[in-house]
Write a structure and sequence with these properties.
- The chain is an alpha/beta fold.
- The protein has 2 domains: 193 residues, TIM Barrel; 31 residues.
- Helices cover 52% and strands 16% of the residues.
- It is built from 11 helices and 8 strands.
- Strands 1-2-3-4-5-6-7-8 form an 8-stranded parallel barrel, surrounded by 6 helices.
- Helix 4 crosses helix 5 and helix 6 runs parallel beside helix 8.
- Bound molecules: SN-glycerol-3-phosphate.
- The site of SN-glycerol-3-phosphate has 11 residues, from helix 7.
- InterPro entries: Aldolase_TIM (IPR013785), TAL/FSA (IPR001585), Transaldolase_AS (IPR018225), TSA/FSA_arc/bac (IPR033919).
- It comes from Clostridium gelidum.
- Keywords: Schiff base.
Length: 225
């Protein structure tokens, strides 16, 4: 399962990249608004930081298919041909996906609330589809189940597409998708940090450290012995 960072703050991205095995960064217009500054410059800086092979997903904001395609061309020129162009699953968005697919552009269908939207996007050429797990939960439905259904439907119908589950509130939602073999998730740094947090682990390490210090003296490690 790929783990992507859903953020546009370069410092936060660098920090999480140092600590966790990450596979790329996703952004959307709201995340870029939160970051502030010129969004294209922000994306360029993220691209420059990311290691070779890491994914960058960035979203078009145009409302018609033709404009989305033009916008995507410009983004690919500035950010690199391997950038994933995020396109919302509106009817104009689906039309744009078909046009971009003809040019072999990497497409991430976004703003997905139902499994049918994801299915149509995959048929239109999206490589990734991003169901908004937590937002779906907040609407009284089951976001994890929607993501699982999409994953299963892609396999059942032999579609060359994966789920890129987005919008998480907690690590349990991520775990449930991981157990189901979901292809990728994108989450904010605090949710990624929560994936390994456990008081029992912290306490165990505390005891190990104290025991070792009482054996060889405070502050000593294997390196000093
Ligand atoms: O990538 C989509 C995601 O950023 C939405 O997350 O937390 O705004 O629901 P959220």
């Amino acid at each position: 399962m790929l783990i992507l960072v859903d953020d546009a703050n370069l410092e936060a991205i660098k920090k999480i990249y140092e600590e966790f095995p990450c596979d790329g960064v996703t952004t959307n217009p709201s995340i870029l608004k939160k970051q502030g500054g010129n969004p294209m410059e922000v994306l360029k800086a993220i691209r420059e930081f990311l290691p070779e092979g890491a994914q960058l997903h960035a979203q078009v904001v145009s409302l018609t298919a033709e404009k989305m395609v033009d916008e995507a061309h410009h983004m690919l020129e500035v950010l690199g041909k391997d950038t994933f162009i995020k396109v919302p699953v509106t009817s104009e968005g689906i039309k744009a996906m078909k046009l971009l697919k003809n040019e072999n552009v990497n497409i991430t269908a976004t703003a997905i609330y139902t499994s049918m939207q994801a299915f149509i996007a995959a048929k239109a050429g999206a490589r990734y589809t991003a169901p908004y797990v937590n937002r779906i939960d907040n609407m009284g439905a089951d976001g994890v189940q929607v993501a699982k259904d999409i994953h299963d439907m892609f396999r059942m119908h032999n579609l060359n597409a994966d789920v890129l589950a987005a919008s998480f509130k907690n690590s349990q939602q991520v775990l449930n998708l991981c157990k189901h073999g979901i292809g990728s998730v994108t989450a904010a740094p605090d949710v990624i940090e929560g994936l390994i947090k456990h008081d029992a682990t912290t306490n165990a390490v505390d005891v190990f450290t104290k025991d070792f210090y009482s054996l060889v003296g405070e502050g000593n490690t294997m390196e000093n012995l």
